[in-house]
Design brief:
Shape: globular
CATH class: Alpha Beta
Largest sheet: 4 strands, antiparallel
Radius of gyration: 13 Å
Number of strands: 4
CATH superfamily: Dimeric alpha+beta barrel
Length: 88
């Protein structure tokens, strides 16, 4: 299954909600990734243009796009997705 790297920047409203009620965001997105037939390899907060980086395995580009759309609907202000190399 191919690996995908997704980067996202949170909206100010999303940051405000996370400061008010901190929670593990990987626990929040894990069911979405699993419903799409994938699994999360890891996720990290970052400094710079993007606030979070997630590496996951998903069945195909359609699933990766659906995950990106779900993230945008959930408060990602902007996102970026890269295909990673297939497992050999």
């Amino acid at each position: 299954m191919p690996y995908y790297m997704l980067q996202a920047a949170y909206t100010p409203e999303a940051w405000k909600a996370m400061v008010k009620s901190p929670q593990n965001r990987m626990d929040a997105i894990r069911p979405v990734v699993e419903k799409l037939g994938g699994q999360i390899e890891g996720g990290w907060l970052a400094f710079g243009e993007y606030d979070v980086l997630v590496i996951c395995q998903l069945p195909n580009n359609v699933s990766a796009a659906a995950f990106s759309m779900a993230g945008a609907a959930g408060g990602w202000g902007q996102g970026h997705q890269d295909d990673a190399a297939d497992e050999h």
